[in-house]
Amino acid sequence: MPSVLTDHPLLCALALIFIDIVVWRLIGSRGSRWQLAVRVLIFSLFSLLLFNEGMNPMQPAPWPENVPLHLAATGLQIGWWLFGARTLTVLLGTLMMQRVGHTGRLLQDLLGAVIFLIAIIAALAYVLDLPVKGVLATSGAVAIIVGLALQSTLSDVFSGIVLNTTKPYQLDDWISIDGTEGRVTDIDWRATRLQTAQGSMAVIPNSLAAKAKIINFSRPSDMHGVSISVQVSPHARPHRVIEALERAMLGCRPLLATPAPSVALKSSGSAGVEYEISGFVASMGLKREVRNQLYDLAFRHLQTAGVSLLSTGESAAPSNLSRPRALLESSSIFSTLRQEEKDTFSQNMHLQTFRAGAMILPAGEVSDHLFIIESGVVSVTLSRAGVPFEAGRMGPGEVIGEAGILAEQAVPADFSAKTFCSLYRIEKDYLKPCLEARQDIGEAMKNLLDLRLHSAQVLTADLPPAPAKKGFMQWLRRHT
Fold this sequence. Notes:
Layout: H1 3-7, H2 9-27, H3 32-52, H4 67-100, H5 105-126, H6 132-149, H7 151-166, E1 174-177, E2 180-187, E3 191-195, E4 201-205, H8 206-211, E5 214-216, E6 224-232, H9 238-250, E7 262-269, E8 272-281, H10 287-304, H11 323-330, H12 339-346, E9 350-354, E10 359-361, E11 369-375, E12 378-384, E13 387-394, E14 399-400, H13 402-407, E15 414-417, E16 421-427, H14 428-437, H15 439-460, H16 472-478
Antiparallel strand pairs: 1-2, 1-5, 2-3, 3-4, 6-8, 7-8, 9-16, 10-15, 11-14, 11-16, 12-13, 12-15
Helix pairs in contact: 2-3, 3-4, 4-5, 9-10, 11-12
């Protein structure tokens, strides 16, 4: 041993403890492996120093005739047991975090508490030479008293152990516990913390969670249920309503094809009939967007089928309008036309139907007419690197072919019938003078064309190359 260690062993031991604390704080959570390596190294040096100077932690401290020195040695020997318990706890915690992740933190804390309890009892028995049986008996009586006083807290602790063992939910899962819904942000000794959709924090005791009905929306991770309910008049024929809602369902592209979405009649009565559209989406973040989209599509397709959602008010549109005239009323582009203009305009609209799978307007073709979708679902297909993919779906009230009318140019998309479709056709020769006379409609159509061309450009852009994997195995492959 160097002379400084042999001349001042107690100071060197205290210095090692101080270095351990400082290095532990400096490294922090940035390098758990470095933390473990430094702690094991310092503990080894600390142990070597104590045993080399005769301060065996398995025996009472030496130098009983020198009281200050004896007390200092006793403190260092007790510190050895606590230091060892902490090192062992960190070592086991690192191994557990690699295997089970954050969900094993509660078990890690419990194991650490047991290790420290054993270390304290061992220090009392070996260093202080106290009768362990008496200490255990006393501690047992104290434990009973504390346990009776902390029944609810202990219930939370053991319920937390059960929850971490059975794993009904994990961190970042979206769950509902007795009607409280949110994302799991933490699971500790006492409670489970949820961040609700409103951004608030809900703290649910583990004992309550262990007894409550738990719904985990994140399992399976790639499939999440979504549904909406609509009420219509009891006089509407169910077949017509179901067909319209099925078209609305097909018009919502985020809905997964497997398991297939469905429409069902939920309840009926003299006040109205309730129908439900249900399906699945790939992520929790899509649920709100899909619900909103389904409601909008259901409204549009039901309106096209002549069925209105149940309401206390009357429809603003007269019920005796012709089909093309009613379509102009619901169109966002042509709704600004005056009543007499809509009457004249509707007389120049011609109905054209397409079977499912039929091509309505192929990519690259300059259209000499404008289509307004009256009913059905139209699929929009683009190509990226020669591979076609579905970019979107269109429904009642939307227009096709505005590029040929405004700029005599084609768009890079195929428009095909997803279902049986009815579209009203307006010839360019009639529509062009109308757009010149009504600049607001021409401007709205131009904005729509710019938005579609920009979206097509973004969707068909080449995807960035996947980043190369970095690691020891990849380095080894490159250098062999």
